[in-house]
Amino acid sequence: MRRNGGGAQMRIIEAAPSEQPELPTFDVSVEIDGNVVMQQFVWPERTRQWWDMWASSPLSDEFTETDWSELMDTALIHAKFWTGNTSVANELRLRVAKFGATPEDRARLKIQFAAADEAEERTEKRRAAKKPKGDDPRLRLAQ
User: 21-59 burial by CB neighbour count: b if 16+ within 10 A, else e?
Assistant: First the structure.
């Protein structure tokens, strides 16, 4: 017999949010004049901006250390993309989707910004305020 809603129940655990770490400093091997040398990796400015954007996003308010770790790995893929390696585009898109980067991603994750509800409420109030009232002569023209 099949039951609707069967399956494992969601397990709820306590987790403390953590602060966003700095992008790390590390060396990479590069070839210069036929010689392989170690050189400090330079984060593209666009990736630094992207990292800062995540810090200020309400989506990251509850990120734990493991979330930041995964996003840091994603930052490296982002850096590769912005330095011309477009072959990583699919992996980058898959990873940022897990964090709710786009409206479609947030809908799939069942995340909605409260500001959207508030904006809709303000729009409805403005529309209601603009509706003609009682003895408005425009109402007679519409008849």
Answer: eebeeeeeeeeeeeeeeeeeeebbeebeebbeebeeeeb
pLDDT one-digit tens code per residue, 65-113: 999 999 999 999 999 999 999 999 999 999 999 888 887 877 887 777 7
Residues 6 or more apart in contact with residue 36 via CB below 8 angstroms: 29, 30
Backbone angles phi, psi at 87, to 5 degrees: -70, -15
Averaged pLDDT, 7-34: 89
Q: Based on the number of CB atoms within 10 Å of its own CB, is 3 exposed (0-12), middle (13-18) or buried (19 or more)?
A: exposed
Q: Report how far residue 47's alpha carbon sits from residue 16's, in angstroms, rounded to the nearest whole number.
A: 26
Range 118-136 average pLDDT: 66
The secondary structure of 86-132 as a DSSP string is GGGHHHHHHHHHHTT-SHHHHHHTT---HHHHHHHHHHHHHHHHHSP
pTM: 0.69
Neighbours of 112 (CB within 10 A): 11
Chain Cα centroid distance, residue 102: 6
